Amino acid sequence: MFQVTVLALVVAMSWPSACADDDWAAYKTKYNKAYTGDEDNRRRAIWQDTMTQVREHNALYAQGKTSFFMAENALSDVSLDEISDAQDNYVELEDNVETPVSEKLVSQAKNIPESVDWREENIVTEVKNQGPFGSCWAFAVVAAVESLHLKSTGEKVLLSESNLVDCATSEGCNATSRLKAFQYIIDNKGIATQASYPYIPQKGPCNFSSSMVGAQIKSYVQLPSGDETALKEAVATIGPVTVGFDANHSSYKSYGGDVYDEPDCSRSRLTHAVLVVGYGSQNGKDYWILKNSYGSWGLNDTGYMLMARNKENMCGIATRAIYPTLCGGIEEQEGLTPGALNLGCPETQIGAVGSVRGCGEIEKIGLVYICIIMFNLWCEGNMI
Ligand SMILES: *[C@@H]1O[C@H](CO)[C@@H](O)[C@H](O)[C@H]1NC(C)=O
Ligand SMILES: *[C@@H]1O[C@H](CO)[C@@H](O)[C@H](O)[C@H]1NC(C)=O
Ligand SMILES: *[C@@H]1O[C@H](CO)[C@@H](O)[C@H](O)[C@H]1NC(C)=O
Ligand SMILES: *[C@@H]1O[C@H](CO)[C@@H](O)[C@H](O)[C@H]1NC(C)=O
């Protein structure tokens, strides 16, 4: 009897750490991580702390004391400081860039649907992964332009974050804002395709050439700061909108699902940028649907996140909301983008509504003439 008790005791005592060994090995396998020596111990300690927090938080969630749950993910063995450092301590500074505020959007707030999810309309491109680099702003801007281009033309063209990282500013990534990226795309008369200018998670020399262009924008519009009603209307009538928010919290790192709500969040210190692709409500909780750039992460590992909506601008989600407009795009036809910065469209309108699809991509002058002749013939044919 004594031996059995001792054995049971030994088993009971060794169980947790043997179990944790297995879990740690399984974690590393699942997320494709390999560490040696001290690094393995350090990573394991961070992972254990994270998992303790996840368990404690999820116990509160089960009691209905918090509105979101946490989960293990690829960031579970990475500390918040490391994420912050790897992302160049990205903070959107309150710079003084003049941007138009869309008055009309606010005043038009009627017949706006109670929920919108642009993923269901197939105008949201796949979730990408920025890796350990402060390029979230480039991913947010690219995701917005990809979506608007798709919505406007029906063509899915993946675009280049590295084009923005390398070329949109010389100040380094931390001081760059989405505004500068949008302005670059306007000034540059377009942004490269992903295929012609692939992503690497570091800043390199600018290697853009005009033959790489996959999409153009006409302007960008910034919504009234902190106005969640304006954001809702813009998302419903225009399409996905880029936003910044305060992501510098361990609750965010381990976000696993349901509606995120962090009482310690700042409404002015925006440390991350993403794309709002919709909004809605579930179980009495209003939310924004955010497309992140961490690959598989967050809401059921889909790469998305639900952020509390109508909770006094939670985490600054509506503090700085910006969307691009396309040349001849649908939003322009509906007269919904007053105060656009750059009213002149670039001469070549690649894929834009109203342009001759395909012609804009042909560079040789002779072929352009053929294109114009063909277009005229086509027009005349149609008029008969
Ligand atoms: C994140 O918060 C920590 C304190 O918790 C702070 O030291 C760090 O500077 C913050 N990082 C950013 C990018 O704001
Ligand atoms: C950006 O980060 C670099 C270090 O990576 C730092 O020297 C510089 O001061 C930062 N700039 C801003 C505006 O935060
Ligand atoms: C720059 O782009 C060209 C294609 O236009 C490519 O052949 C070349 O390797 C690129 N250079 C660098 C440094 O990436
Ligand atoms: C996420 O997973 C939970 C269960 O783990 C499920 O109840 C929920 O419907 C899923 N949500 C989505 C958006 O798939």
From TrEMBL:
| Classification via Pfam families | Inhibitor_I29, Peptidase_C1
Q: Known InterPro entries for this protein? A: Papain-like_cys_pep_sf (IPR038765), Pept_cys_AS (IPR000169), Pept_his_AS (IPR025660), Peptidase_C1A (IPR013128), Peptidase_C1A_C (IPR000668), Peptidase_C1A_papain-like (IPR039417), Prot_inhib_I29 (IPR013201)
Q: Which residues cross the membrane?
A: none
Q: Where is the signal peptide?
A: 1-20
* Keywords of this entry: Disulfide bond, Hydrolase, Protease, Signal, Thiol protease, Zymogen
The protein's name in its UniProt record? Uncharacterized protein
Top-level taxon of the source organism: Eukaryota
Query: Can you give the residue ranges of the Cathepsin propeptide inhibitor domain?
Result: 24-83
What biological-process GO terms show up in the record? Answer: proteolysis
> What are the GO MF terms of this UniProt record?
cysteine-type peptidase activity
The text of the family note is:
Belongs to the peptidase C1 family.
Task: Name all Peptidase C1A papain C-terminal domain ranges.
Answer: 112-325
